[in-house]
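Lay summary. Proteins are chains of building blocks that fold into shapes, and those shapes determine what they do. In this project we predict the shape from the chain. Here is one chain we studied, written as its sequence of building blocks.
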Amino acid sequence: MSADAKKIASPLDRYKAAFDARWQGDDELTALRRAALDQFLSTGFPTQRDEAWKYTNLRRLETRSFTPADASALDAHQPDWLTTSGTRIVLVNGHWLPALSSQTAQPPGVTVLTLKQWLQHEPAEVATYFKEHDQLGGNALEQLNLAFFEDGVVVNLADNVVVDAPIYIVHQSTSAAAGRMSHPRIMIRAGRNSRATIIEHYLGANEAEYFTNSVTRFDIAAAGAITHYRGQQEAPRAFHIGHIQTKLAKDARYSIHDVQLGASLGRTGVTALLEGSGAHAALFGLFAPMGNQHLDVHTRLDHIAPHTTSEEDYRGIAGGRGRGVFNGKIIVRPDAQKIDSRQSSRNLLLSATAEIDTKPELEIYANDVKCSHGATTGQLDATALFYLRSRGLSESDARAALIRAFAESILSTIDLEPVRTALEKQIDIRFELANEAKA
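And here is the predicted shape, written in a compact code that computers can read:
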């Protein structure tokens, strides 16, 4: 093997060594893990030659040497956590921390447990689930998650169950996560005519460089409805890759409100498969790369059944040397007649060195459909800025007001008040600080 080949192979060899040190045996689940690892090793990290990764270079991530994170303690509730009623599950460095998770009784028809608990009590059922849903499917990083996952959250909703209070899942990374990786799995299975709200919140310690590679899967049965809030506030040096996969049956509903503010390099991929007639998916998102951040959003709305609908609105705000990416794809299958799908991507550049690449895509194989998409990228409106300054606002306050108004179209879609208030506060702090730095 040449020296160059060894240099390329060595990062992948480290993952194989970490796997061999973590898992032994020949049980069915370990075999599935090993098959997933083999697929990851055979393809490696995506490169910019892959169309889906054209604007996102993972070389920095690939060259790092991360080992699996171990369970870690946390002394107390963190100030950035949301104050909500209902069930709270806390994962610290990818592992469940019962001391800070809620101990409230679960409503009838609702089961919330950690993935580690499920693994301990029903390992054969876990193996069957992954064999049916994940074996050698998905991209290389999803396979890396399948190879290394250790904990997560499993939520089962029986038919006709309505969960009034949100289920809040905290992903907290601490300074002990430095040099480590975690691969949490979140699985939500919603029965017929069930309703629930899921909050995922990713946070990290400022000094830590670590790697979070998460997979969240929703299986929503007929007439079920899930509202999903996802906030990404990882540490400034962290790497964050998130995969959200949703399957919708007849008349099912799914909405995601996705806000990316953290990480040095972050990417969220959202895929919704509308498999039953009458299904509806709504995707709302905001990403705000500042400084040297790189934040990437890839979405895929796949209309498989007729009479399905979807709407999508993502907004990006980039300042400093920040770079953002939005790639939204709508697919309409040949039998998916009478569908209605709308997509919008609007982006705001706050400096001459900021950049946002936006790529809306339509693939339509049916002839009786309504589909539209649009993308804009621009700067703050000089006329609006002048008007606000003429009313007595300083330049920094005027800029902050216009940025907040731009972001508010996404934040206003968040009905859950604690989530909306917390994110509005983070946006205000972020861009007030940016204006101070500019001044």
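What the prediction tells us: The first strand starts at residue 67 and ends at 68.
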